[in-house]
Design a protein that fits this description.
Distance between the termini: 126 Å
Helix content: 40-55%
Order of helices and strands: HHH
Structural class: mainly alpha
Shape: elongated
Radius of gyration: 42 Å
Strand content: under 5%
Largest sheet: none
């Protein structure tokens, strides 16, 4: 008898120590309810279905000019300006 009383007392203490379950913020689903997808937080971008092809000349980088060629062009511009005056 002492064991039964002790178990009942422990169960009563345990029931008081645990709070009751909080009520749900959401109601239960009912027949006919429709679950919808929430709106996306990101912006969707439409992709183009047509491909664009760049000309071959535009895709290749221009080769750097040698220093001598740069100086030659500058010199030619200087000569042209001097002749204009």
């Amino acid at each position: 008898m002492a064991g039964v009383a002790r178990r009942e007392a422990e169960a009563a203490v345990g029931a008081r120590a645990r709070p009751a379950a909080a009520p749900s913020l959401f109601r239960a689903l009912r027949p006919g309810d429709v679950i919808v997808k929430p709106p996306s937080r990101t912006t969707t971008m439409t992709t183009s279905t047509t491909t664009t092809v760049a000309p071959a000349a535009a895709t290749q980088p221009a080769a750097p000019l040698p220093v001598a060629e740069i100086f030659r062009r500058r010199f030619q511009r200087t000569i042209a300006r001097a002749r204009e005056d």
